């Protein structure tokens, strides 16, 4: 099983697509009507629909292009008792009100072959931050240390948990966009101990992969 990253955008994309199809269908219907008695009605409805499409298009731009954009590394680095996670702000604006949660998820059999999940909170060194710098593709004097990339760590024994059958980690990141104030949530699931890279460190900057600690 591979690590899975998800966020809340997929459901919004589907609902937005359905609404857009409805608006376009209505517009086409009125344009096809040929009765002279309803020309004024057609004109009015077309104007309303056109205005709605423009407003709807602006909303789509606002929701999809001006929401926070974050990447979470699918790996966990481990060294000297510390488990490290990496997140990268890929937005062109700063992110604010960052909240991070990490859970150990263990399936618990219920009835009719179904299961619930037992959730156990993992303690992180830092779980809340006021801000993370905006993304910069090239090195800049304004952010010489690439602070758009942040590592978080835990000292809980995660290896002993991930070796258990069907147990996995769920990493949750909630942030607010610095320009629009829109918030979003990002989730990464770590399925087993294979994603833990012992005596490794994360690559510099936006890269999400790892290299051995003694590698320069």
Task: Compose a concise summary of this entry.
It is built from 3 helices and 13 strands; from the N terminus they run βααβββββββαβββββ.
Low-confidence parts lasting 5 or more residues at pLDDT below 50? none
Give the strand tally.
13
In CATH, the homologous superfamily of the largest domain goes by the name G protein-activated inward rectifier potassium channel 1
SSE class: alpha+beta
What is the number of helices? 3
The CATH architecture name of the largest domain reads: Sandwich
Distance, first to last CA: 31 Å
**What is the CATH topology descriptor of the largest domain?**
Immunoglobulin-like
Strand content: 35-45%
Give a description of the structure.
The chain has 216 residues and is of the alpha+beta class. It has 2 domains: 7-65; 68-212, Sandwich (Immunoglobulin-like), CATH 2.60.40.1400. 26% of the residues lie in helices and 37% in strands. The strands form 3 sheets. Strands 1, 5, 6, 7, 9 and 10 form a 6-stranded antiparallel sheet that branches. Strands 2, 3, 4, 8 and 11 form a 5-stranded mixed sheet that branches. Helix 1 runs antiparallel to helix 2. It starts with a strand and ends with a strand. 17% of the residues are buried. The mean pLDDT is 83.
């Amino acid at each position: 099983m591979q690590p899975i990253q998800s966020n809340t955008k997929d459901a919004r994309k589907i609902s937005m697509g359905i609404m857009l199809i409805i608006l376009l269908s209505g517009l086409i219907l009125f344009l096809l009507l040929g009765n002279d008695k309803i020309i004024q009605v057609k004109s009015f409805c077309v104007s309303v629909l056109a205005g709605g499409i423009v407003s709807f298009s602006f909303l789509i731009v606002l929701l999809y292009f001006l929401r926070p954009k974050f990447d979470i590394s699918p790996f966990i680095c481990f060294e000297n008792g510390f488990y490290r996670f990496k997140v990268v702000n890929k937005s062109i604006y700063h992110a604010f009100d960052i909240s991070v949660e990490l859970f150990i998820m263990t399936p618990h059999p219920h009835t009719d072959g179904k299961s619930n999940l037992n959730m156990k909170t993992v303690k992180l060194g830092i779980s809340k931050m006021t801000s993370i710098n905006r993304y910069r593709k090239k090195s800049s004097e304004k952010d010489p240390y690439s602070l758009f990339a942040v590592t978080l760590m835990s000292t809980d024994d995660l290896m002993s948990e991930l070796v258990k059958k069907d147990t996995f980690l769920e990493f949750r990141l909630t942030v607010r966009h610095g320009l629009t104030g829109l918030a979003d949530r990002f989730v990464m699931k770590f399925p087993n101990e294979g994603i833990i890279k012992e005596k490794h460190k994360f690559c510099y900057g936006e890269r999400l992969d790892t290299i051995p600690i003694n590698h320069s």
